[in-house]
Amino acid sequence: MRTSSPRGAAALAVAALLLAGCGSSGEAGVPGLRDEAGDAFVSGDSTVQVVPAAERGEPVQGLEGPTVDGEELDVADLRGAPVVLNVWGSWCGPCHAEAPDLVAAEGELAGLGARFVGINIRDRSTVAATGFEEEYGIGWPSLHDPDSELLLRLASDVPPNTVPATLVLDEEGRVAARLLGRVSRATLVAVVEDVVGTPAQGTP
């Protein structure tokens, strides 16, 4: 049955993606996935969870500091707009695989005012991180988190050894959705549309 409301259409799309996302992408527990220090990491299992507005916790705090480009950023300053928060590392194969989808989703979601922010973990030097951004044409900022200190502040939402991982924050800065593992353009766009309650311009 079709619905004529934008929020209803987005909800139906997310429901379908949730059913598909509850399985494994085949990347979970990738052998040999290690950071620059040689510590083992696992890729998430492509689980998608949207948190109803009434069940969201307090706004995320303490995500601030230097970016890989040497600028200062405080995620709290972006409140008033939905924020896509992506945890990644240049050493992470699934992060390379999902980067083109993130770039495509960012362009598609621009009309909804969505802001993208990365948290770059375990890259001791920013050289590898900036090279990753240049390779994929990533234009949004990424906080540099070589010791995973910022990531630990998200421990209730992102398992500390899971990468990549993506959170969607609502306009109040609360966690509205969690996507663990490699994310696709279609899934991310549908989730953000559901959080905002409006389809992205040009989305069928």
From TrEMBL:
All residue ranges annotated as the Thioredoxin domain in the record: 54-197
PANTHER family named among the record's database cross-references: THIOL:DISULFIDE INTERCHANGE PROTEIN DSBE
InterPro entries, sorted: AhpC/TSA, Thioredoxin-like_sf, Thioredoxin_CS, Thioredoxin_domain, Thioredoxin_ResA/DsbE_sf
Keywords noted in UniProt: Cytochrome c-type biogenesis, Disulfide bond, Redox-active center, Signal, Signal-anchor, Transmembrane
Subcellular location: Cell envelope
Name of the protein this chain belongs to: TlpA family protein disulfide reductase
Coarse class of the protein's main subcellular location: other
Pfam families: AhpC-TSA
Species classification: Bacteria, Bacillati, Actinomycetota, Actinomycetes, Micrococcales
